[in-house]
Structure formats: C-alpha cells, structure tokens
Amino acid sequence: MNSWKPATALIVGAGSGLSASIARCFAGAGMKITLAARNADKLKPLCEEIGAAALACDASDAGEVEALFASLDASANGAPEVVVYNPSYRVRGPLLELVPQEVARTLMVTAFGGFLVGQQAVRRMADKGRGAIVFTGASASVKGYARSAPFAMGKFALRGLAQSMAREFQPAGIHIAHVNIDGGIRNEARGSIDKPGRPDSFLDPDAIAQTYLHLVMQDRSAWTFELEVRPWLETF
Amino acid sequence: MNSWKPATALIVGAGSGLSASIARCFAGAGMKITLAARNADKLKPLCEEIGAAALACDASDAGEVEALFASLDASANGAPEVVVYNPSYRVRGPLLELVPQEVARTLMVTAFGGFLVGQQAVRRMADKGRGAIVFTGASASVKGYARSAPFAMGKFALRGLAQSMAREFQPAGIHIAHVNIDGGIRNEARGSIDKPGRPDSFLDPDAIAQTYLHLVMQDRSAWTFELEVRPWLETF
Amino acid sequence: MNSWKPATALIVGAGSGLSASIARCFAGAGMKITLAARNADKLKPLCEEIGAAALACDASDAGEVEALFASLDASANGAPEVVVYNPSYRVRGPLLELVPQEVARTLMVTAFGGFLVGQQAVRRMADKGRGAIVFTGASASVKGYARSAPFAMGKFALRGLAQSMAREFQPAGIHIAHVNIDGGIRNEARGSIDKPGRPDSFLDPDAIAQTYLHLVMQDRSAWTFELEVRPWLETF
Amino acid sequence: MNSWKPATALIVGAGSGLSASIARCFAGAGMKITLAARNADKLKPLCEEIGAAALACDASDAGEVEALFASLDASANGAPEVVVYNPSYRVRGPLLELVPQEVARTLMVTAFGGFLVGQQAVRRMADKGRGAIVFTGASASVKGYARSAPFAMGKFALRGLAQSMAREFQPAGIHIAHVNIDGGIRNEARGSIDKPGRPDSFLDPDAIAQTYLHLVMQDRSAWTFELEVRPWLETF
To answer: Of A116-125, A189-198, B153-162, D29-38, where does mean pLDDT reach its minimum?
Structure first.
C-alpha cells in the first residue's frame, strides 16, 4: 500500500455543520485547511480553533472560483491536495408554485459550482498525479422526491459530474468520490435533534467526517467512488 | 382498461431526426401535432407533410416557454394532452478545456428547459386529471462518461426532474416517462449509417417513435416511468 | 424497420393471472401459444378459449424443462419464437423464522428455473438468429424489502441472469427483456381489487400484457431491455 | 459518537487472499478472529500468525452453518460481533455449455450460504442490539456480464439478501454492509500482478481490508450500506 498523507485541504461551502466537522477531522489528521464560503467572516471562530484560513467565494461564479484557486496558489499552503465540494441551494414546494429563477439558482449553486471548483482543482492536481475531490451528495442525488424537483436536478447533475470526472481523472491519479448523505444531519440550531427513544437518528457530522477522511486516505489500488451514509433508524 | 386516446401533442425541440419521427408517428395515431423549435422555419416541410403547426421557442427561456403555451391555449388545438421534451445541447472534450459558459448553457437547454416546459404542461393537464409528458434521455442520463461532464450533468438533472415530477403528478393522472436513448440514432446527414455487416446498428428513429407512442397510450394502471432503447449490436 | 411478427410463444408458469392475459394478448396478435405449468390440467379452459396447448413442467427441474422443449420441437408449432418466464415462489416473514429449505426453493423456482428455460430457449433461437425472451420481475428485483429476503434473492438473481443473457445473446439477434412489475396485480380471487376512490390502483393484467406484446414486437434497432409497470397511484 | 469496538469476528470463506488480509487487519485492530472454510487445515499458518481459531464449515450446508455458530457459542470468544461472508463459486463460459448442476451450486455457495450465515449471525446479534455483517460482492453484483450468468445470479442474489437484511436489522442495531469488489485482487499465486507501467492496477487486499475495518467501526448514526472498491486504472 501507498502511504499518501495529504497535507492540505480546501473545503468549499464551509459553514457550521458538516463542513466544520470535516475541517476539524482533516485538521486533526494533519492537513492544513482552507475554508471557502460566500461569507468568510462567519468562519473566524472555526479558523482560530483549527488554524485554518478562510476565503470568500461564490462557488457558482467562474471568476470568483478562479480567483480562489489563484489565491491558494500564491499562499503558503499552495494548491490543495484535497478538495471537498459541499455547497447546495434548494427551493422546495409544489412544482406549479416554483419560480424559474430559483430553480436555475439551485442548478448553479448545487451543480455548476461543482464543475467550476472541480475544474480548477484538477488543473492543479493533474500535474502532480495525485489528489482527491469529494462531492457531497444527498438522498436527492439518486431519488427525485415529489415537490423537490430543483434539488433533485441539482444533486443528480452533481453526481453526473462526479462520475464523469472519476472516469476522466482517476487514471491520472486523482481520486474522485461522491458521498450520498441519506438522512438529516444533527443540527441543534435547526432543531434537528434526536427524539426520545430514537438515539442517533440524525447523522452525526463528526461521524460523517470520519468517512470522508477514510475516503481521501484510501490507497489508489482500492478507491471508493461512491458510498452513502445513513442513520441506523432511517427508512430507505 | 381505459381507452384514452390523446388528441393533441406538443413536441419541443423539433428538428429532422427523432422528433420528426415522433411527430409522424403521433400524427398517424390521430393526434394533432404542434412542433416547437428555436427556428420554426425549418419545420415547414414536416408541418405540411403531417398537418402540424410550428411555433418558435427557446425552451431555456421562461418567458418564451410561457408564451408558447399561452399561444397553444388560444389555438384550435388547445393545451396539449401529450408533451415530448427533446432539446439538448452539449459541449464535449477534456474537462480542463471546457468553457464555463458552455457548461452552463448545456444545463440550461438540457435540463432547465425541461423544467420550464414541464411546469407549463402540468399546469394545463392537472385540471383535466390526465396527460402524458415524455422526457428524452440518453446514455449520459445514467452514466457520466469521461470528457463529457456537461452532457452528463444536463441529462442526469433531466432524469431527476422526471422522477420528481412522476412522484408528484402521476397520482394526479399525468403520466411522466423518461426514455434513455442508449445508442446512436440513424442519421444519414450526419453519417450515422450502418456499416457493412452491421445492419440496424443505429437506432431507427421510427422504431423509437413506436415506443414513445406505446408509452403515451399506456393504461394508467400500468404506467412505465422509465425504459431504454438500444440497438441489438450495442455494447452496454 | 423490420416487420418481424413472431408466430409462436411459450409461456412458462401459466395460471390465471398475468400469464393468462399475456396468452390472450399474444394469441390475439396471431401467435400460436403453448402454456406450461406444473399442473397443466387447470389450463384447459384457457387453452380452449384461445386455441393453446398446455404442457406439464416443473420449471426448476432440468430434465422436465429439457423434455418440455423437446416436446415442442416435435410439435406442429415447433420451437417457440417467443418465451415468457413467469414462475416465482416466495416465502416471507421475519428472517429468523425462515426455513432454509424454503429459501432454497425460492431461489430454484424464481431464478434457477429461469436459467433452465432460458438456456433451452436460446439453444433453439440462436440458429435462426431471432427470438425474444421476457423475464417477469417484481419490485423485489431491484429493492430488497425487510422480511422478504428470499424473494429479493430470487428476483435479483433472475435480473442478473437476464442482463447476462442480454449481453451474450442480443448480438445474436435474440431480444432479452426484463419487466419489473412494480405493484399488485388486480386479482378478484385474491381480493386484490380497487378500493372506493382509488380506481386502477392495481395493475390490470391485460394492460401489462399490452406492454409485453410491444416488447416482443420491437424492431431490433431499438430494443428495450428493461422497464417497469406501475399503477398511477403507486408510491415509489 | 459511540465508540463501539467490536471484540470478535468470524470470517467465513477464509483462504489466502482477501479473507486473510481482513483477518490480519481485524486482528490488528484488537479483534479475536475465527476463520471458517471447507478445508480448515490450510488455515493453520494464518491462525498461528494472528492467534486465530479455524473451524471447518461448508457455508452452503444449513446443518454445518448451525454447528459452526453453536461451536462459537460454546467457545471462549462466544458469538461473533462481526461476521464477514466471503465465499463464492462460479462457473463461466457460453451459456449454452453450462451444466445446470454447476449453476445451482453457484447459487448455493454464493448466495444461499450468505442467507444461512446471516441468519445464524443475526440470531446472536439481535439480543445484544449490535453487530456488523459484511457481504463481499463483486462487479457481477450489479452488472450481469456475458458468459457469466451464474456468477451474476449468485452475486445479484447476495446483494438482494444484504438489502433485505439491512432494512430488517439495521433498526435493531445490526450494521449490514455490501462491498462491491470491482476489479481483480492482487494475487501472485494466480498471476494477478501489476504489469509494467501499471502500478496498483490490481486491488491490494490489505487496502480493501482497511475499508472493511472502517465499515465495521462506523458510528450507527452514519452507516454505509454499500460501497465499491476499484483500482485507479480500472475502466468502469
């Protein structure tokens, strides 16, 4: 087995939930972390906690994504060896009530941004012949639910992107993975907490992060492209 | 069994290939056909041949799609009982060479237009409690090929839309179907013709049209949401 | 398009439900029908109605399946151009209560019998370079439900067989199809009838039969390997 | 997160390849290992190396599987907290040349044995409300290749079993996982070794074992049911 230990990671779409857990987990494994979000100010506490840098970036804007990576190229960390694409946007409700502009925005943030970030990431990784990119999917990546067409469109598209990138870039040494988060993530602020008698019924973001870490550390002889994480009590 | 015979059909993304065969096949089954395309002029010969009307429409433009359906509402045919969404756009090549705007356009034409047309279509069908919408997919709907990420993104997204619409609207009597065209369609103009010793190795558009017709005529007790059509000699 | 019209069909696992509807539908399209079942006596009324022959055969017994086809070879109809494999057996309940022998029997009838019949069928079709074999699947073909492991095992296995046969024999001109019957079939004797306010909530076997007929008549340039049929009100 | 550390593991279908790597990896993580195989004698060197016990068992024989678990119940290790089902048998070649008995045997060893072992395993785990069972799949679990129908039947069936067991037993605290080994495993004895210029083109069994270990250690709030492992150079 190889013993590749990535040294740097960029987490796009960083906030307080899963992305923060991934950042802590990756930092704990020795990676230097850069966080990117539209609003970088909110990331200060996390940055201080784990010694990460934060950069502002709208992932659906080609120019901003290009600038983000250029900024990293010029930084002490250099281009990231691991990239996680996490952003999503969604509008739900009866299809007849959906506003077309919101549907377009869902596609842009959830899927097109993944292309923009993925393209910049592989541009740097291809020369080195190694790297890892993880795309965060959802139940909607593989099942189009009623009254949630835009999110299904965005997450299906992101999965199509991930598959295509895997087929193009894995033979170049870049590990591409897609994680289907098939359940609600524990989030006290949003009230997503376990009900009595149903412990661990929400995904613990720290537990998900362990699986992200396992993925990016896998030996290239045995890469996982796709897996799902799901609470033990989740119906599927 | 019911004996629903749809009287009218709208084919969006009409041109000279599959869409023309569908138009002829549906007309042969007694439906009055409206064809929509960005350039409606090119549709004149087909319109004359099968007694169809042609309307100009950019399917990725919300206003134009709304106008298209308003125009049909006011026409002798009225709102269509069957709608086929056929448009796609694609840009291929090494991911590192892709121009972001072209990727966005692929998403808009291939998937977002499907939402716009689907929304207008069900708005009319929901009141009557019946109708059928068929989305034209491709191999790329379920497999992201290397060097073809944009098309995979668009076609995966369209499939997610179709699934979501099926779950929301089939219980309202509207049949939603997704057809995976898994192979090349015979097209002399493009040189897509059988090689010696390999007869019928391209999909005959008239044969595909027969399957579209079967779908839209199915009894509501036994609807097919998804199927693929593939030449006998195609590797899969 | 070709205009292949199959002249003969063998329906294995014939009884009073779907198989009878398929037999009537195929007979109505001009095919001479042979029905096979473990108990051929019960098939007499149907045979008289549609002018079919009935033969006794346990589809999970290699010798009996071989004898069935030998008998057809020697008959006026000759080897069948179309074969439908319909039998299944299932045992349900909590996994801990399942009797191993019943699980083995489920595999044998539902899947192994499909191999036996499929092997004999293609042996005859391969020389002519044409033919069609349809395997009857179920929701359990693609989803393993709790407390129904044996049926999932059998129907998953049958689908694997169908895929493998499609890849081996479609280039030899033999159309292989797998139909996922995703819902309950209307059956008055079993009490599977629509509840008030939910018309057509069970699959009409005559409607399913129309789709089987469409499949076996498809042009070889545009074969469908797999589709599902599902009532409009079915949750999925 | 919980911090469940399983103490004991049973590996059924143990030999010199993947199963040996799993045994070493699990032993390295502190588990006491029992190995089961039809021929237990060949396991002696591995047993000595990692302090494991070996028991003889034909996994497709209900009585032998029952005896295996009874023997474990009475042993110092007790009933296993983790079980890996690894056996498979296959016969390949043109479908027309396959011997029915060999096809049946493929189903029995590859899938029915998984049921027998799974049933005995959950019988012990259900009371404790925890445990993990991993089923070893293959490319053939999700794709039926030409000239390999029996293996597809067996591996598809095993996957159906795994899904059904996951839906029934995960809410009881038992983690069920299915691993699709999508490539050839490095094996010098069989000549499965990398060609010049294609390093790591075979799956390193020790790398696969790391992923098995990750699976059985996952927190119950974020279980993975299914993943695949595939060499970076593998076409898919």
So the answer is: A189-198
H helices of B1-76, in order, are: 18-28, 44-50, 62-73
Our CA-based measurement puts residue D148 at a distance from the nearest CA of chain C, in whole angstroms, of: 7
Q: Strand, coil or helix: what is B74? A: coil
Distance CA A203, CA A205 (A): 6
Beta bridge partners of residue A208, listed in sequence order: none
Burial of D38 (0-12, 13-18, 19+ CB in 10 A): middle
- Cβ-defined contact of A232 to D200 (cutoff 8 Å): no
The pLDDT, as a whole number, for residue A16 is 87
Reference A108, options A54, A68, A58; nearest CA is A58
Paired tokens of A194: 């376990």
Contact A95 B159 (CB under 8 A): no
Residues of D in contact with C153 (CB under 8 A): 111-112, 115, 157-158, 160-161, 164
**Alpha-carbon span B65 to B56, nearest angstrom:** 10
For the stretch B14-41, what's the b/e string if a residue is b when 16 or more beta carbons lie within 10 angstroms of its beta carbon? bbebbbbbbbbbbbeeebbbbbbbbebe
What is the distance in angstroms between the Cα of A40 and the nearest Cα belonging to chain B?
24
ipTM: 0.98
d(C-alpha B208, C-alpha B191), whole Å: 19
> Span D74-103, mean pLDDT?
97
Q: Are strands B226-229 and C32-37 parallel, antiparallel or unpaired?
A: unpaired
